[in-house]
Amino acid sequence: MNRWPFLILLLLIVPLFVTGCWDSKELNSLSIISATSIDRERDHWVVTFQVIIPQAIATQTGGGGAGSQSPTTIFSTNGRTIREAMQNASLETSRMLFFAHNSILILSEKVAREEGVGQILDFFLRPFESRETMSILLTKGKASDLLEVLIPLEKISGNAVKRVIDQSQRNLSQVQNIKLIDFAARVADPNASAMVPELQVSGNLKGQSSLDALKSPRNEAVIKLGELGVFRRDKLVGWLNGEESRGVAWLSNRVKNLIIVYPCSAKGGERDSLSSFRVLKSSTKLSSEIQGGKVTMKVQINARGVLDETGCKMDLSNPRVIAEQQRIIAKVINGEVVSTWNRLRTIETDAPGFLDVIHREHPDAWKKLAQSKHPLDEITIRPQIRVNIEHTDMINKPYSTLLEQNKRP
Amino acid sequence: MEKIDKYQLISMTILFMIGSTPLYELGIGVKQDAWIVMVAGLVAGLLLLALYLYIQRNHAGMDFFQILNAHLGKLVGTVLSVCYVVYFAYESMRNTREFGDIINISFLPNTPLSLLMLVMVLLSGYAISKGVEVFFRVAEFMFPFTIFGYAALFCLIIGSNIIHLDRLLQVMEHGLLPILEQAIPEVISFPFGQIVVFLMFWSHLNEKRKMVRVSVYSYLFVGVLLLLFNVLNLAILDPSITSITTFPLLRSVRLIQIANFLERLDPVIILLIYIGIFVKMTAFYLGAVLGLAHLVRISRFKLTVVVGAAIYGMSFLAPNFIYHVWIGFAQNLKYHFPVFQICIPALLAAIIFCKSWNDKKKKRAKQPS
Questions:
Q1: Where does the record say this protein resides (chain B) (predicted)?
Q2: Using an 8 Å Cβ cutoff, are A250 and A336 in contact?
Q3: CA pair distance A122, B190, nearest whole angstrom
Q4: Residue of B nearest to A180 (CA)
């Protein structure tokens, strides 16, 4: 039995099937998107892409140097649906838009407030190329403006923004990087509210969007993280400022690294010298109590850290002094937490997910609350804050005490 | 007669049960309690497995079609045999179409479905034309890679810190009833009841005494594995997102991000799923071929071609993936598959039990005399 002709025939035919010719994508026919923004104009979606220009990144080594070519290019398209807007993009690009490396998605305040994010989430969760790990950001003005700003030290501003968020989340707990998938889950959760950081441009936008901007050491404009946008279901309802976003971080057990500035004494006014306490470890426990139909939320915060800086004159080696300092810090945190809670109540968003806790611990009380029109008004909070200053770093007495000694002779 | 050993049976049972199951979130109708549905299905499936093993143990060396014929007579036996051949082929086709569509949705949107499925059916047909032994050896060979793959995914998921176990709370908010309604019969029919096809293979095992133990242990192992991935999906994606996602595990795996370079691992999961799908569709295909061999006397090769062509042809029945999934999950699992997985085997077991009980009575009646 001669099998060879058959086998050779098979070897020749099989490769025809496994080439994947139908879905071939050549690198040089793609335009890789690094950031996307969505605006709304009348009844149209305006989608703006920041596309990486490979030649501009490849030719130079090291970051920041101004080349002859901008590292990214931007184009905006519009359409009745987001997909249509993207489709229209192919009318003006020479290459196929490739979405898999998109790292940030910027929504304008107008879209988030008026349209809601429902359709946007549907669109970004649906196609296979879109990544659930992209970061979501909000902006108060036109979202596409942010894509134009060139960032020093970085080639691709989309990736740079992502790194800014990552970096500041690590060093400053009030900022939170929210991934598309977590954002979608928070928006869908009836017992919690989503929060999204704001990205803003400060300075002269025009100046920073030209290549010459990178030639001078001082930037005309910078991109920076600002306030925190809070959602009720799929719509943006308000902004929390820096202090309030810290309060939310305390309430939702997200504090990992944070500086707390506090006065020397409990009665200290504005002109008093200030000190800094650096939180190294913190935990927040939420638990609910029902008494006579009233819901009380116990917020137990346990913060440990070090004294990082002080302008006060005191003996830091004395445990009593340290205990006093701890009390003052606890008072500052308490103030932040309470004022944040009052603010959240007025805009009626449950950012820390109190209802979730009540749902878990007291399902009956939760049912009552869920039917109420203003469920948050029926919850009172009772913060219990413990602060522990573990050490005072490399010096154990304030430097200012030396100055006093020198005065005397 | 072709022989398989116990390691091959273990590998086959585990790969077969894994199939494409991890990809779906079974029992998601009850949101965060989906995993309890899985537990219920697992326990109920264990009872079914006991039933099948009982049938097989009383008839060492006979396969399912021979047992049917022996107890139900030539006519009924033949009719049921034909039904089972169709059922096996249909199950095989469901896997074929499913994977074709998965590939279309996730990786190769423009590649013709017909070609994807043709490649799969040809591959399975080739394995079957080599016989039972070869197919089981293939499973034994692929087993360590698959288990390693799933274990690695599990570690990476843990490493990327995306598990939020609090999303599983609150447990059994609406009581046990909705959970049982979800579990019976849907989760039993898919995947646990599908093990009925092993009635075609158990007779090939060389160590008959080990059959029960090996089967039950493999079943429990795979049950825990499926449960684990079910829980992971809920904890990673949140019940809300899980419930709207076509392939939850695929999405969970896409969230893995370690040290800015270990990410976008979706091809890995697709590869693992394909191993499962290949084993499952080939096992059903083989079941249909072996069954048909009892009914018509033509060579194995021709049977393979005929059944393969039938499976390939049937896979075009559904006009689209949505219809295919709807038919499978909303119709077949509730009304059709339980007939083959529960009703007929239970009937058969009852007949066997009565007969053996009768025999014992007769023996006892004879003894005193």
A1: Membrane
A2: yes
A3: 29
A4: B255
Contacting residues for B356 by C-beta, under 8 A, at least 6 apart: B58
**Domain ranges within chain A, ordered by starting residue:** 27-240, 248-409
Q: pLDDT tens, A237-272?
A: 999 988 888 999 999 888 888 899 988 877 766 567
pTM for the model stands at 0.88
Q: Is the preceding peptide bond at A352 cis, omega within 30 degrees of 0?
A: no
Question: Across-strand partners of A225?
Answer: A199
Number of residues that make up chain B:
369
Q: For residue A242, what are the contacts with CB-CB under 8 A and spacing of at least 6?
A: A174, A227
Q: Check if the beta carbon of residue B44 is closer than 8 Å to that of residue B59.
A: no
Is the per-residue pLDDT at A63 higher than 50? no
A248-409, CATH topology level = GMP Synthetase; Chain A, domain 3 (3.30.300)
Residues from A in contact with B at Cβ < 8 Å: 17-18, 20, 22-23, 100, 125, 128, 131-133, 179, 181, 184-185, 188-189, 359-360, 363
Mean per-residue pLDDT for B252-264? 85
For chain B, list residues whose CB is within 8 angstroms of any CB belonging to chain A: 105-112, 115, 118-119, 167, 169-170, 173, 237-238, 240-241, 244-245, 251, 254-255, 257, 263-264
Has residue A284 got a pLDDT over 60?
Answer: yes
Residue B204 has pLDDT above 70, yes or no: yes
Q: Is the distance from CB of B49 to CB of B234 less than 8 angstroms?
A: no
What three-state secondary structure class fits A262?
A: strand
Tell me what pLDDT residue A214 has.
67
List Cα–Cα distances, B10 to B1, B137, B146, B200, B202, in angstroms: 20, 11, 13, 15, 11
| Strand partners of residue A79 | A45
Which residue ranges make up each domain of chain B?
A: 6-332
Instruction: Kindly state the average pLDDT of the residues A78-87.
Output: 90
**Which 3-state string (H, E, C) describes A184-199?**
HHHHHCCCCCCEEEEE
Of B93-97, B132-136, B287-291, B354-358, the range with the lowest mean pLDDT is: B354-358
Strand boundaries in chain B, DSSP class E:
257-258, 262-263
Q: Which of B170, B172, B251 to mutate to test the interface with A (most CBs of A within 10 A)?
A: B170
Rounded-to-integer distance, Cα A173 and Cα A164, Å: 13
- Chain-centroid distance, C-alpha A99: 21
Residue A101 has pLDDT above 90, yes or no: no
Tokens for B21?
Answer: 């199951």
Q: Which fold has domain B6-332?
A: Hydantoin permease (1.10.4160)
The whole-angstrom separation of Cα B67 and Cα B64 is 5
- DSSP H or E run through A34: strand A30-41
Structure tokens at B221: 């192992």
Rounded distance between C-alpha atoms, residue B368 and residue B78, angstroms: 40
> Alpha-carbon Rg of chain B, whole angstroms?
21
User: For A43-62, what is the mean pLDDT?
Assistant: 78
Which is more confident, A368 or A387? A387
pLDDT digits (tens, 9 = 90+) for B176-193: 888 888 887 788 888 888
Compute CA distances A47 → A6, A41, A138, A398, B58, whole Å. 55, 10, 14, 55, 69
Distances (CA, A) of B340 to B17, B70, B73, B76: 17, 18, 18, 14
ipTM: 0.85
Q: What is the pLDDT of residue A65?
A: 47
Contact assessment for residue B178 and residue B19, using Cβ atoms and an 8 Å cutoff = no
Query: In this predicted structure, what is the pLDDT of residue A3?
Result: 80
Return d(Cα B118, Cα B312) in angstroms, integer: 7
Query: Which residue from B109, B169, B254 is facing A132, i.e. has the nearest CB?
Result: B254
